Amino acid sequence: MGTSFAGCPFGVVAHSHGKFRGLPQKMDLFGSHFHLHVETSRLNFYPSSVSTSTSKGLVSRLCSLPDTDDFFSEKVPTPILDLVENPIRLKNLSPNELKQLADEIRLELSYIMSKTQKSLKASLSAVELTVAIHHVFHAPVDKILWDVGEQTYAHKILTGRRPRMHTVRQKNGLSSLTSRSESEYDPFGAGHGCNSISAGLGMAIARDIKGKRERIVSVISNGTTMAGQLYEAMSNAGYLDSNMVVILNDSRHSLHPKIDEGPKTSISPLSSTLSRLQSSKSFRKFREGVTKRIGKGMHEWAAKVDEFARGMIGPLGSTLFEELGLYYIGPVDGHNIEDLICVLREVASLDSMGPVLVHVITEENRGADNSQKKEISYKQQEGSSDPNSLPSKFHSRTYSDCFVDALIAEAEKDKDIVTVHAGMHMEPSLQLFQERFPDKFFDVGMAEQHAVTFSAGLSCGGLKPFCIIPSAFLQRAYDQVVHDVDRQRIPVRFVISSAGLVGSDGPMQCGAFDITFMACLPNMIVMAPSNEEELAHMVATAAYIDDGPVCFRYPRGAVVGMDYSICCGIPIEIGKGKVLTEGKDVALLGYGAMVQNCLKAQTLLAKLGIEVTVADARFCKPLDIKLLRQLCRNHEFLITVEEGAIGGFGSHIAQFMSLDGQLDGRTKWRPIVLPDNYIEHASPTEQLALAGLTGHHIAATALSLLGRTREALLLMC
């Protein structure tokens, strides 16, 4: 193999003793600059990839996974990847071996994608970049942070988690994000994007205060460049001038927010040469030396000339980073490992460099070569029992589909209806509205704060905005909801998608809190549909309300009914619930999608001779006071059920019942809500069971209230 071709920023000493023979027992990783001796025999990089601080519960969870022999039995050989158990193994690889390693990782990801039917395109684009980062930097001592989880699968493979990659997003499996509790190579959890620079800057300042020398690398993507926090962090990084590296993985070849409107950034031999020059230590020293020699009066002029010259070289928009205080380098070919390592090695070797942004151009659809694609295609033809592999004509109709149909029906009747969408991804069904009303659809990307205030402005201009934001993303815009909408009683119609549990997306996109934080606002009308028909009615109701803000939530997943005809909604009376079935023993009051589980519980209890009333609350605010008093008057036991956190619908019920004296008499009330913890990724059915929100759990709660504990236990067996 020979000695590694790329020098390392801290003077790494890493010699090879023959092809693929592993590393010496001791390595001086940081030479004279950073005195840290590492004994490979003492480091626990593989296979558990769990830090020593991890709880015993997590360790047992990670070690109790199914056998992977069947999953990988047909996999194409990957000889170099098989030897890379952790990033230290990359240090001895030659340029050609690193290229082969990248090809093998891409093949591995393509194979996993074909078997699991999960898209890994974002990670496929970042394979060479990930290899280069781990070759140059020294994780976990150096901190590598990622903005979004979709880019990190190659990182996971290289950091000891390869044997369990097929368990991503499954119960007890790997997280789709970076996770501090999962691996010591994940110094910070990737959330909804745009957090890596802020967190990285905090780590850099902490490093400086403590007198340490580790490198901080934050990797961002095109999607996160729409978020305001990113620019707040860049501005602060430029002001504080602490050493850190920001890498923009540009898979769209454009810094323009709308890819169809912006010019494409291309890579040429000239741009590659200039990027190497920009990153070189000699160029930086020459630049700083010239600046020091000229007088103060010429300093500002020289800086402007330098910025202008490099702005002419760089793509449109690159000078923005310079204005924020980051030294811009790029564009760099994100699939040329030699160029990547050269630039990153130079950047890592600079002392007192301040924040640097390296603009890397990648291709999201970059996959394996033709022979590898044929192999993947053959494997796909052999068949997978995964229902996700079924043709699209078998696609179940979702709540989102029904919402868009109802919204289109309303928009055809009311020319003032417009739509604003914010979040990481746009649901495919929304494209129907965009195609039908292109001038009335605004997708602002990951700019939720802007989306809310923009909607308020549209409303003040006489339009009727429907502001569509997933529940977990609406959290980022709460200040705007309070001050720019609710406090001013501006009629913005908030459509909260992905409400409640979200299955394989786990706690990051779980919509657990919107009932609580929206229902506490004084002027907000808060409602939730129990099925697709109710959803259409609430769209019509929201369009009708024009004197204040309103919100309604709907979950992911398939709708209840099988009637796929477009339902024209009819406005419903504000604060009016309804009774679905009547009984005399127990009352179940459901909110939103949980009404369906209340009906399942009613069926189970009916088999045991228990008569149950099931009511659909429809509204959390204002509550149907008449319905509540009726349920308390006619039943000794009342159970409320919601797919939301503590402090939501059930808390509003408790507030009213206690003040109204309903809890002073014979009525016994029990709330069923999401547990006070984050529920990890699993299938929707598994998550509901973990949360205690299935029909069986609701029925068991009723049986316990009735004193039939044994039957309750048998029901849960």
From TrEMBL:
EC code(s) of this entry: 2.2.1.7
Keyword Acetylation: no
Ranges for region Disordered: 368-391
BP-aspect Gene Ontology terms: isopentenyl diphosphate biosynthetic process, methylerythritol 4-phosphate pathway; terpenoid biosynthetic process; thiamine biosynthetic process
Record key words, sorted: Isoprene biosynthesis, Magnesium, Metal-binding, Plastid, Thiamine biosynthesis, Thiamine pyrophosphate, Transferase
Enzyme class: transferase
Pathway per the UniProt entry: Metabolic intermediate biosynthesis; 1-deoxy-D-xylulose 5-phosphate biosynthesis; 1-deoxy-D-xylulose 5-phosphate from D-glyceraldehyde 3-phosphate and pyruvate: step 1/1
UniProt domain Transketolase-like pyrimidine-binding: residue ranges: 397-562
Main location: plastid
Cellular component GO terms held in the UniProt record: plastid
Keyword Transmembrane helix: no
SUPFAM superfamilies: Thiamin diphosphate-binding fold (THDP-binding), TK C-terminal domain-like
Essential cofactor(s): thiamine diphosphate; Mg(2+)
Subcellular location: Plastid
Reactions the enzyme catalyzes: D-glyceraldehyde 3-phosphate + pyruvate + H(+) = 1-deoxy-D-xylulose 5-phosphate + CO2
InterPro entries named among the record's database cross-references: Dxylulose-5-P_synthase, THDP-binding, Transketo_C/PFOR_II, Transketolase-like_Pyr-bd, Transketolase_C
Pfam family, one: Transketolase_C
GO molecular function ontology, one term from the record: metal ion binding
Biased composition (Polar residues): 378-391
Compositionally skewed regions (Basic and acidic residues) per UniProt: 368-377
Family affiliation: Belongs to the transketolase family. DXPS subfamily.
NCBIfam families, per the entry: dxs (TIGR00204), PRK05444.2-2 (NF003933)
Assembly with partners or alone: Homodimer.
Protein name (Swiss-Prot/TrEMBL): 1-deoxy-D-xylulose-5-phosphate synthase
